Amino acid sequence: MSRAQEIVDEILSGERYARSHVFSDRVYRDEPILRAGIRPRTPSQGPSMASAIPRTERLHMPAAYRKMRALGHNRGRGGWAAAQTASSAKLFYEQGKLMEDFEDDFSQPCEFARYFPTYDEMSDRELRCYFSWRAKLRAGETPEAPTSFLFVHAYELLCGIGVTPGEQGYAALEQFRAQYAGASSAFDTHLKRWSHDYVVFHGLDASLLEPMGGSFSLSSVALLVNAQEILLEADGSLTWPDDGPVARELPSPEDMLDALCSLSRYRAERSKFFKEHREDVALVCARVFARMVGHCHKRRKTDYLEGLFGVPARVSYTMFPSAVFWSPERHEDACFEASSAETYTCEHGFWWRELPCRRTETNRELGALLHAIDCRMRKATGDAHPLKERSLPKYQAKFVDEEIAALLAQRKAEEAARITIDWSALSGIRSASARTREALLTEDEREDDSLTAERFEPVSRNVAHEQPAAPVQPTVPLEPTVPPESSALGLDASQLTLLRALLDGQPLPANGGAMFLSLAVDAINEAFLDVVGDTVIDFDGETPVLVEDYEQDVRDALVDGV
Predict the structure, then answer these.
(1) Among 116, 165, 375, 456, which is disulfide-ready with 160 (CB 3.0 to 4.6 Å)?
(2) Is 109 helix (H, G, I), strand (E, B) or coil?
């Protein structure tokens, strides 16, 4: 008896197992191990194990697939880990270049889902489905496809498979991105980052870049850094607004407000009060920023912006993260200036990113300051929608309150100094002035005005539009012995004569000179103000002209009112 049999007998003979119901009515017997296909089975025995095992369908594979598979021999399939290695990325590139112009026509459906999908991860059926789908895509269609197919094609475009690297590759990448926008949130996120890196890697126009930091803006940090440097150089002698040569280099208060809002955890740009009082809010925010810069320079070891976002940084940068990417040649040393705040450099094939700050997330402390400005400005102006106050350091609250009070005092002084001119009263003032002047004239001065008026033969504006100018008639003076007439319009005979002369395009009466014309025009305009609601005669001090738009209204009024 073997040692194994002895152990089994010892266990089974034990008292514990003897009382167990599991072994109470069972006897151990040797049984054969079933092997599929050893004996033919009768129908009563049911299906064999061999028939239950699915067999892989054998497809006809064109020679191009066999050549592609041959490139991967002895390399194995490593899944997620292998996709991250240079050898796997190189294999993908070599296989892609081999199949660059290949097209298939395979209509059977299939599903394909992998992390970091590559050709080597696909079965024969999946390969045929992919290259058939790609053929339709290149023909201008947008066929449905598994998300993994989208990633494989994006890898191809990044590697320059099927496109010329550079502007053509970027255009193809953006077109593909637009075609399948919304197909997968992960696909959208990765393709946005890869499009950004593609512009940098190939040195394309920097205007093609999209912001990558969400609401956080590196350009806003650079703008505030520039303002901080100017303020520190001026040593507290600058503020907004200031017309000095140094102050003109400062960003405008509106630009300062936009920058602060984009970097703040508090979404100040959504505040209704900020929108309705943008100019005043911008001034307060800019001035409080200047106070904080001066305070930190005197009281802290680091300046204000370094305390908020950290010091300028140069960090390692990975091109096309999470993508299967291979370049046959090492990238030459290069420097790409994405903006005034962001620069990418390549040194010996390694990429670096230079930033104006190390922390690239919105700041809670800055958000608390903007919230305090919003809250306290509403309270100071009596706004109908106050905000609940939050905790804020006392010195910051003091800065905010003082700048709000200073702005309100400034606005009050500007309002008190503002001169308001009532233009509607000018006509009456001019008439009164003319009457006073007329009363002070001597007889010789009146004769001089009469002679001056005789030298002018004005013609109304509407003559050129109605008919050729009539021959000039001798001036017809008003008879001083004729008693003045009056009409329903309240006009005397001399004013009616002047008005009819303007209507008929006749020479104007000269009696009374320029002063008479001024007084008569004022009287006529005042009389017609209730009729047409506007002046009917334009007078520049020398020649009265009837307003063409009101000619018919004047004629009708004379017919009805005389």
Answers:
(1) 165
(2) coil
pTM of this prediction? 0.60
Strands (E) located in 340-485: 342-347, 350-355
Judge residue 347's burial from the number of C-beta atoms within 10 Å of its C-beta, 0-12 exposed, 13-18 middle, 19 or more buried.
exposed
Is residue 344 within 8 A of residue 103, CB to CB? The reply is no
Q: List all residues 6 or more positions away from 17 whose beta carbon is below 8 Å from its beta carbon.
A: 11, 23
In terms of Cα–Cα distance, which of 376, 388, 394, 412 is closest to 285?
Answer: 376
At residue 69, what are phi and psi to the nearest 5 degrees? -65, -35
pLDDT tens-digit series, residues 428-463: 677 777 777 666 766 666 665 555 555 444 444 443
Region of poorest pLDDT, from 100-104, 362-366, 546-550:
546-550
Alpha-carbon distances of 402 from 84, 358, 398, 408, rounded to whole Å? 58, 32, 6, 10
pLDDT tens-place string over residues 315-348: 999 999 999 999 999 999 999 999 888 999 999 9
And the tokens for 88? 């796997």
| 142-199 per-position pLDDT tens digit | 999 999 999 999 999 999 999 999 999 999 999 999 999 999 999 999 999 999 999 9
CA distance 507 to 475: 6
Sheet holding 334-339, edge to edge: 313-317, 350-355, 342-347, 334-339
DSSP single-letter state for residue 482: S
Who's near 328: CB < 8 A, 6+ residues apart? 93
* Burial bucket for residue 379 (CB in 10 Å: 0-12, 13-18, 19+): middle
Which distant-in-sequence residues (6+ apart) come within 8 Å of 81 by Cβ? none
Question: Are the C-beta atoms of residues 303 and 297 closer than 8 Å to each other?
Answer: yes
DSSP category for residue 357 = -
